[in-house]
Amino acid sequence: MLQKHLSSSQVLIVLDDVDHVDQLDALLPVHVLRPGSLILITSRDKDVLRRSGVQETNIYKLSGLNAQHSTELFCSHAFSQPLPLSGFEYLVDSFIKACNGLPLSLKVFGGLLYGNTDKSYWEDQLDKLQLILPNDIQKSLKICYDSLDRHEQQIFLDIACFFIGKSRDMVIRIWDGSGWKGSLGFQSLQNKCLVEIENVNFIRMHDHLRDLGREIVEAAGLPRFVSLGIDDIDDLLQQSSVIAELRGIKILPSKDKHSDGELTSSSGKKRRKLQRLDMRKLQILDIEESGHLEPFLKRVHFPNLIWLRLGKCCSSSLPSWIPLKNLRVLEVHGNKLETVWESESQVPLQLRELKIGARLSEFPKYMGKLKYLEWIYLYLKGENNVETLPEEFCNLRSF
Question: What is the residue-wise DSSP string for 204-231?
């Protein structure tokens, strides 16, 4: 269908941030394009373009901003005006040279210095920046990361590893549950130009900053988050030191469409018994399909879960062995789901946000117990028997 459309029209194709030859081989349909069509490729690796057959004459190296535009961008973030404050001209000129026309560095360092009129502080930051080679972007940006307080650093790493593209309001509720004053911390990162908001409420982070955050986590020696398929869980179980430190896990469906999804040992034999795993640091759990994970989840001790997302719940309600006590955000989907929890003892009293996508036969029981609930999103699929709203909904901030 796509090839037919491309061959019948003149098109402009944009491939952004390509970092591997295989991406171009898969996405570049040169043989089907109509004459007059254009392809624009952006990449941080010139070698990728060469190896893909792009002619040297067709490769354009984007230069940095000139001195005037660099000054305007830097000052707009450092002083909220396009020109330096009186007496800061020489410092601004030095930062402009050190940032080498790179817009991201100009924005981030301008944000770092915003509101600070102590010239000695400016000079200290400049000394750190000038010790770094002009092209070493990651090291220069790490100066700004090092200036954050402990909770702001944790929030930065959370975004880089897990929350790009997620709702700001939802993530702030998670950080509040971690004791990090989420709104203040996020606002600080935003003021320092380390994160942005797009489409009203969704978190965006520049690729360089994302890579910096993930490299910091990797350099620490223990992963903060892991994203893996259900087929790879057994390998994770063998790494007790990693499991004990994990903050978040995303579990994807089996890659093998014919697999029954049961957990197996490394040798391929069905695992008869899984050892009890202590994962009390685990606070974020994102599962695409929960049907075959019961043997794993029932043997994991993770009492401090703050965010749970079940993309495909295969039972009529949440199983009683999932710890809901400390949840701040719960998202659950499933065609078999009829209600969310069956007993009063399951009700997550700390819940702030509830998302449900299911053919509910009734609204969740004991809604009046959720004194802190702020948002509820209902995606009622297909036929459902819900006709009236419980009186408890009158106290909610959003529905």
Answer: E--HHHHHHHHHHHHHTSS-SEEEEEGG
pLDDT of residue 269: 43
* Better-predicted residue by pLDDT, 134 or 82: 82
Question: From residue 244, how far is each of 211, 280, 303 by CA, in Å?
Answer: 24, 7, 13
Q: How many residues does the chain have?
A: 399
Q: Report angle CA 251, 255, 257 to the nearest 5 degrees.
A: 125
User: Residue 33's pLDDT is what?
Assistant: 77
In order of 238, 349, 368, the CA distances from 365 in angstroms are: 39, 13, 8
* pLDDT for 268: 43
**pTM as predicted:** 0.78
Measured CA to CA, the distance from residue 144 to residue 146 in angstroms comes to: 5
Q: How confident is the model at residue 256 (pLDDT cuts 50, 70, 90)?
A: low
3-state helix, strand, coil in the chain (%, to 5): 40, 15, 45
Average pLDDT over residues 62-68: 89
Count Cβ neighbours within 10 Å for each residue of 87-124 and write b for 16 or more, e otherwise.
ebeebbebbbebbbbbebbbbbbbbbbeeeeeeeebee
Task: Give the CA distances from residue 360 to residues 252, 356, 397, in Å, rounded to whole numbers and listed in that order.
Answer: 25, 9, 22
Residues 385 and 199: their CA atoms lie apart, in Å, by: 34
CA distance 303 to 306: 9
How far apart (Å, rounded) are the C-alpha atoms in residues 359 and 383?
Answer: 6
Residue 399: pLDDT above 60? no
Please name the residue that has the structure tokens 């790879």.
Answer: 232
Calculate the CA dihedral of residues 380, 382, 384, 388 and round it to 10 degrees: 40
What local confidence, expressed as pLDDT, does residue 264 receive? Answer: 43
pLDDT at residue number 262: 47
